[in-house]
Amino acid sequence: MSLNIVVCIKQIIDPEIPASQFKIDPATKRQVQGSHSLVISAYDQNAIEVAIQLKEKHSGKVTAISVGPATAVTALKSALSMGADEAILVNDPLFGSQDQQGIAHVLAKAIEKAGGFDLILTGCVSGDWGDRAVPAFMAEELEMGFVSFVSRIEPKDGQVVLRRVVEDGYELIEAKLPVLASIISDETNTPRYPKLKDIMAAGKKTIPLWKAADLGLDPDRVGQGAARVAITDVYIPTKESKCEMIEGDTPEEQAVKLAARLRELKLI
Amino acid sequence: MLGTLVFATTEGGGLTRNALELLAGGKRLKGKLAEPIGAAILGKELGPHVQQLFAYGADQVYRAEHPLLEQYQGDAYAIALHQVCQRAHPKVVLLPGDSIGRELGPRLAHRLKAAFVADFIDFDLDAASGRLLFTRQAYGGKAMAVVQPHVSPVVATVKVRAWDPATKEEGRTGEEIRVDVALEASLLRTRLLEKIQEEVSGVKLEDAKIVVSGGRGLRGPEGFKVLEELAQVLKGAVGASRAATDAGWVAPSWQVGQTGRSVSPELYLAFGISGATQHVAGISGAKNIVAINTDPEAPIFKVAQLGVVGDWKAVATKLIESCKELTGQ
Fold first, then answer.
1. pLDDT at A41
2. B142 plus B258 within the same structural domain
């Protein structure tokens, strides 16, 4: 069963920088990039891995799509070097004021334009805003079935069976194609490191750039005034972070002192 | 006109704690909006829950029963909850920030052409505009963001354990509204085949007063046996960081963090956990964090109140013994 898969990825500022280096621009209410590197949001990398494994096992094609600034080309090149066949960048100054529903509308229109997909994959949460909402909005825009927090996908009789991770275990869900799934990590989908030759080959591939005018967007859904929510403030919470260190010559001594301290604090 | 509609989930014959937290939020919103609280409840046989919902603060209960709603399934619940909203016309719909609400909330928002706010922890009424303002975490908890909806209604998920559950008022009553949902199996593009529950001994992670968690530093699945013993002594639950679940040492459902579960225990013991942003986002509600790590520079010490620089296994093993002595076991 050959599968035509699209993976939506987002480029973000490395979320693992120390809190002390995290800054917000008071004017834009967004994080200041400074000298920090840009990365593919972590679970989007798991989504790429799931797509590539499915292609390797069942044949097919993987396309990576990103809505983002021109720098997102490097994220798309990484996806190509991991094994994606094609990549598309969707970029337009008009998208700067989109909220999550607006971004989902743009992504959905780009996916419709590219056309013919069986499976649409995304990460389950982005490392910056973490709304976990764009995949669900996209599924609604595309009028498709949707399954979130999926760690594994197996084709079966022209459909797919998805493993959805929930609080107390997991669910097995059967879905008609096409279906949209947001991917969570587990031991089967750790993102691969691309080989040097694949990085070189990806560097040579051209990535088409699609603008707002290419997509047939609903004018009520884009640009200033279309957003249904606005971020009115972003601030860094002040918290005292003083860690009392439990000293001792051996770990055993530290453990005894820790237990006594916890007892003193009435925590155990 | 309905103010807030709370999506109430059930388990094991009762309302979930998440549902009670939403009802507590509904009551607070009622104080601001001065409009009644509705509760939407979906399932197969819901009779016993209706009275409970009144007792916990609902003025109206929208009861939607259908064989296809027996267990949560995305398509069936999205269709049914949308129909309930069309009947109830709420200004605000609250869903839990769990695996159900996070999937269902944005879908419902799209269908209602509503604003959507994810995982908020607090809200206020903006006196000037008369609009609600929602506060939530952003950037994995490094920042807080204030979100203002521009349209009505608003669909929002509430961060699990951000609020205390609603208090019960015996004998309180309200209005029950039965909603006959139009639902057919042919409308469902996704179907739940099977739910596999992983065995959990002791308390649930979200409900535990003490959580003992392990990360990459445990270097293998065996380490979790030690943590399970410690959790048992402390009557707590065991969690894990993403590094441990991604390595397959324990099930993904054990994961605490931005993708996993949010916990807010009195005491959180982090063994061999470096403190990546994505993990810390899930423990921001913990009252006391204790970090045990060999690396004194690990970011976990920045959020911990108590720290031990040392070998996790030696500390944990001795801690089991000391805790047994101190608690008279």
1. 97
2. no
Q: What is chain B's mean pLDDT, rounded?
A: 94
Rounded Cα distance, A247 and B306, in Å: 11
In-domain check, residue B199: no
Scan residues 81-140 of A and list those with Cβ closer than 8 Å to B: 100-101, 124-125, 127-134, 136-137, 139-140
What CATH number is given to the structural domain containing A52?
3.40.50.620
Which residue range is the domain that position B91 belongs to? Answer: 2-187
Please state, as a whole number, how many other Cβ atoms lie within 10 Å of the Cβ of residue A197.
9
pLDDT of A240 reads 62
Whether residue B110 and residue A101 make contact (CB cut-off 8 A), yes or no, is: yes
CB distance from B170 to chain A under 8 Å?
Answer: no
What predicted TM-score, i.e. pTM, was given to this entire model?
Answer: 0.93
Do B222 and B306 share a structural domain? yes
Q: Which two tokens stand for residue B40?
A: 């939407």
Report the distance separating Cα B54 and Cα B31, nearest Å: 17
Task: Say if residue B179 is in the same domain as residue B232.
Answer: no
B130 lies in the same domain as B224: no
Which of A133, A175, A231 minimises the CB distance to B116? A133
Which residues from A are below 8 Å from B206, CB to CB? 167
Q: Which of B98, B22, B138 is nearest to B259 (CA)?
A: B98
Q: Is residue B198 part of a domain?
A: no
Domain housing A40: 3-221
Residue B192 in any domain: the answer is: no
**A181 within a domain of the structure (yes/no):** yes
Mean pLDDT of the A186-214 span: 97
Q: Helix/strand/coil (H, E, C) string of B83-123?
A: HHHHHHCEEEEEEECCCCHHHHHHHHHHHCCCEEEEEEEEE
Among A15, A43, A268, select the one facing B140 at the smallest CB separation.
A15
Selecting from A18, A164, A187 the residue whose C-beta is nearest the C-beta of B248 gives A187
* Mean pLDDT value across residues A49-56: 98
> Do B230 and B118 share a structural domain?
no
Tens of pLDDT, residue by residue over B191-240, are 999 999 987 767 889 989 999 999 999 999 999 999 999 999 999 999 99
Q: Which residue has the tokens 């979100």?
A: B147
Show which of residues 17-56 on chain A sit within 8 Å of chain B, judged by CB atoms.
18-19, 22, 24, 29, 31, 42-43
Cross-chain Cβ contact B315/A258 below 8 Å: yes
If you count them, how many residues does chain A have? 268
Number of helices (H) and strands (E), helices first, in chain B?
A: 9, 17
B178 and B213 part of one domain: no
* Number of domains chain A contains: 1
Q: How far is B145 from chain A (nearest CA, A)?
A: 4
**A166 contacts B308? CB cut-off 8 A:** no
What's the number of domains chain B is made of? 2
Residues of B in contact with A183 (CB under 8 A): none
Q: What's the pLDDT score for residue B32?
A: 83
Say if B196 falls within a structural domain. Answer: no
Q: Is B328 on the interface with A (CB under 8 A)?
A: no
SS3 state at A236: coil
Higher pLDDT, A150 or B261: A150
Element (H, E) at A12: strand A11-13
Residue A40 within any structural domain of the chain: yes
Selected residues 8-37 of chain B with any CB under 8 Å from a CB in chain A: none
The answer to whether residue A193 is domain-embedded is yes
CATH number, domain containing residue B218:
3.40.50.1220
